[in-house]
Write a structure and sequence with these properties.
There is one protein chain. The protein is globular. A two-stranded antiparallel ribbon has the order 1-2. With 282 residues, the chain is mainly alpha-helical. It has helices spanning 31-52, 57-66, 71-81, 83-92, 101-123, 127-146, 148-158, 168-184, 189-200, 205-227, 235-255, 261-281, and strands spanning 9-10, 14-15. The two termini are 18 Å apart.
């Protein structure tokens, strides 16, 4: 059993003992190590899934709540911990960003501002209200992941259309709104950003995907930066997860093309829906 120490309260009424360096303390001698192993495996899987199909947060976030972290703390910790994975994904597609500097200069500020707004909204949400929103947010993330394949097919067909000039200005508001969601919760953010870019810009899907990775990284960097001083990050847990997620991402890169991404995505969606049902029944 988890044993939480009593301590002064922090914002949203969450005990300070819920957000220590490790995030978890045990009355027994071996439980803490077991918990960290569980967190590491969840983050490793999340990094792997993000690299292959997307939707890794639908695995890592429930794992944190299952280990005893309050949902709000789990969400903040998850955002900070998975940030290195977004950086790795951006660097992995840096060749697709060539010649898109003008787009980044216009859209990155919108993504960063949206991520900051989402983070501010999250920290102003009471723990009770966020607990009630969690299953709906998980269902939304699962739904976004479920439509990723048909959306990608539609985008590929649309990319063949001719006669419309690119317009970064039209992308500013959709990117900003998507980033607000990303700073608040984030699962399925990449699907929303890619759709926003494809609807407003004329370019190949690989180049738009590279731009999407950079904007998703900017969104999460902004949100994570604000979370750093919030007192809501379980730092030891986040550190373990960050390393494991990087390893999972690297492994996913090596397995790309060898794993059926569609099947993996379907499994993650089913897992997300099952977790949402569990949250509804709690």
């Amino acid at each position: 059993m988890l044993a939480w120490r009593c301590a002064p309260a922090v914002p949203n009424g969450i005990p300070w003992s819920d957000v220590p360096w490790a995030g978890i303390s045990w009355s027994g001698g071996t439980g803490r190590v077991t918990d960290w192993i569980g967190v590491a495996l969840a983050a490793l899987t999340a990094g792997l899934v993000n690299a292959l199909a997307g939707g890794g947060s639908l695995i890592s976030f429930p794992a944190l709540t299952a280990l005893g972290l309050p949902p709000l703390v789990a969400n903040v910790t998850n955002t900070v911990a998975l940030l290195p994975g977004y950086l790795g994904a951006t660097l992995g597609q840096r060749s697709d960003l060539a010649g898109q500097g003008h787009r980044l200069r216009r859209l990155l500020p919108a993504a960063a501002l949206g991520g900051l707004v989402g983070a501010l909204l999250l920290l102003r949400t009471s723990a009770t209200l966020f607990d009630g929103l969690v299953p709906w947010l998980i269902l939304l993330g699962s739904g976004l992941l479920a439509i990723q394949a048909p959306l990608r097919t539609w985008l590929l067909r649309r990319a063949q259309a001719q006669g419309r000039s690119p317009s970064e200005g039209w992308a500013l508001l959709p990117v900003f709104l998507a980033a607000i969601y990303g700073g608040y919760f984030g699962a399925g953010l990449s699907v929303i950003v890619l759709a926003a870019l494809a609807l407003t810009l004329d370019d190949s899907l690989p180049r738009l995907n590279g731009l999407k990775q950079a904007l998703a990284f900017g969104t999460n960097l902004s949100a994570a930066g604000w979370f750093l001083g919030s007192g809501q990050v379980a730092w030891g847990t986040a550190a373990v997860m960050a390393v494991a997620a990087l390893l999972g991402g690297a492994l996913g890169g090596r397995l790309a093309g060898r794993v059926n991404a569609g099947l993996l995505r379907a499994l993650v969606v089913l897992f997300g829906v099952a977790i949402a049902v569990v949250f509804f029944l709690r």
